[in-house]
Fold these 3 entries.
Entry 1:
Amino acid sequence: MSLEGVLQTGNVQTNGMFWYIYRSQSSGNIYPLEIGNLLCRAQDLVYEPEIVWAACAKGCSNFGSAGGCPPRSPKLEKIASPEDPVWLIYCRFWSKFKHENVLKSRNPAVHWKFQDAILSRFLANIGYKLAPLLKGSFLSTGYCMGCGGKKCNFKLGLDSCRNPHRRTFSMEATGINVVETIKKLFGIKLYWYSKGNTDIPYMLKCIAVFPGKESREDLSLSLLINIVNEFPNCCWRYNTDKYWEYLRENDLVK
């Protein structure tokens, strides 16, 4: 995947997908996660700050209180120029692979929290690892997780971030319409749990990585695979015998 190719031609370049075999460090349970990525420009993102911020203000208690959320978060136009390259990386958790106890629950919050906890942290860790390699920055998914389990300083009434080097802003927090962006660039529809509905095919989250001006390193699929292979929750490294055996047993490859 070439940065120069996208910058010169304006073509979105898809780099494919692979399965990541995630193992919970707390329970030891194993879940396959689908990872895909593509390279585009900032102007290819669906940028609708008024609509997105209005939705945040109406539906999220973190609006106006959390350090990674509007209106404290910068808008996309402050982060990148229209022609700047952007790598989008998504992770999809197919619901049929949820833990059996979660599958039995009729509470949509149980289903949402289970998948969200895995996807959000996993993608944030990719961003934390990849952005420095590219001398750039990244936009995460959902609320800021830079302080781990500690309560956000801003929610405590303070006016400074406890860990500014770990502070993250979500794509939505900068005004990007993630639903329409994913549909436009990946051709994937997003689903949500709601009251009385615990049956959705998958949950998908996405991050955006912005390489620094001095970086001209291509984001190859092998680079992304090498990064996630080193995570402690990697059950079987990509392309090993155990990896392919698991995928075949779960009908994820032919």
Note: The first helix runs from residue 3 to 9.
Entry 2:
Amino acid sequence: MADKKNAVQLPEPSAAEVEFAQHLVERAKADGVSLVGPGGVFAGITRTFLASALDAELDAHLDEVGVDETTGRRVNIRNGHGAPTKGAQG
């Protein structure tokens, strides 16, 4: 059970966020898409949000690692997210 003393208070959603959420619900209903459950709108939103949050977290972590002073290259980069090297350009 969560500790109520240390609970994070979430900010109130902005008017734009509320409007966007209402638009998603209306669109899902019009398209006959479920709001919850496998393949539902909520599952897609959750997946997208988590992927974005994890990407941001990993980017922040890798930015902290820095650059190798002898080569000038980043010490640790994500696969597929760095500039290709001469050999990889083929």
Note: The radius of gyration is 20 Å.
Entry 3:
Amino acid sequence: MESAAHGGARDHVPPAWHDAAQHDGVQHDGAQHDGTQHGDVRRDGPRSDQEPARLLAPDGTRGAVADLDRWLADVDDAMLRQLYTDMVVARRVDTEATALQRQGQIGLWPPLLGQEAAQVGSAHALGSGDFVFSSYREHAVALVRGIAPTDLLRVWRGVVGSGWDPYTARTAPMQVIIGAQTLHAVGYAVGLLMEAATGGVDTDDEAEPSPAVVTYFGDGATSQGDVHEAMTFAATWSAPVVFFCQNNQWAISEPVALQSKVPLVERARGYGIAGVRVDGNDVLATLAVTRDALHRARTGGGPTLIEAVTYRMGPHTTADDPTRYRSGEDLAAWRAQDPVDRLERYLRDQGVLDAAAALAVEETCDAVAAELRAGITRVEDPGWSAVFDAVYAEPHATLSAERATYGRYLAGFDDADATGGGWAR
């Protein structure tokens, strides 16, 4: 697939990240960065020499990068298996949800296929007190945060405004309005600063680190004004927030090359905040850079923009046909970097994932799938008045009048049906 001249255009067909890259006549040195600063912008054009940080190659080979490995000292065999299990379960939930949409059980579904490592790796970096503001595709993040699969799908069935208690899960309801969640995240992060300043939060408790915020969005959202405003305010306030951009290469049918002439991470430079580019199909590197960014946020270092370079292997939503705008060759090239396969190769090579462990993961997936199907079919449709619930925190006269008016309107149909006239006829 031919791509436009742009630093991020390298992402359309997976490059050899560790090799020096020649792009548009500008030589990139492939230098390794520490995750806190950008590579220099060359004088002959706005290009980045920052290759995505990586630890796991597509063939499962584990590299060593000191600035990343220092954040992974606690990652033992048990945690590696947990990361793998969470990724495989997320993929199974995604597959089941797609099937349920085709069967009419939910109205729509935005698949995450191909983005499991970016989501699971970053979610495992979160502390219990951290708060998440996500878009509509972060299903794996929600699952890691403890949200039940059925609750994840209830919104897409159209029966609730939020499928879970955001305060219990420390995860806000998913946001469909593109980029709006970044403003919510910064507002919450500034609130944390205010609480800390007034003694509402104990920032000296090492056992329970001061909370931070992560907001997830896609490459398409970076063209929204809300995201620009959020980063501007976050930089001004040095807010404890991490902007996690999953660059999956497509804003519906528009490639990232049409949105930015430089890698998206370069935008951090303009706001004066830290930025790091990571191979989003590498769960270990993603975990490391997110931990680094959260540490920076907690310790007064301000915001970080993480660009996780990945690929949406499925459609934008189940209403989309990606074959109309992308090539089979492009998809095949990214399938060779599949995040689940990559981690599985590494675990098998290390003896961490033997036959028994693999069977246990498969049985877990089957149990989750069965629970999901049973749960979503038991969800009852709400009564008509539910649409008026939870609009305001306290009683509201106008809303009460609207509820009463709509109730009388619906009752009119009952009267017409009873007399044999009206619409029922």
Note: Confidence is low (pLDDT under 50) at residues 1-48, 421-425.
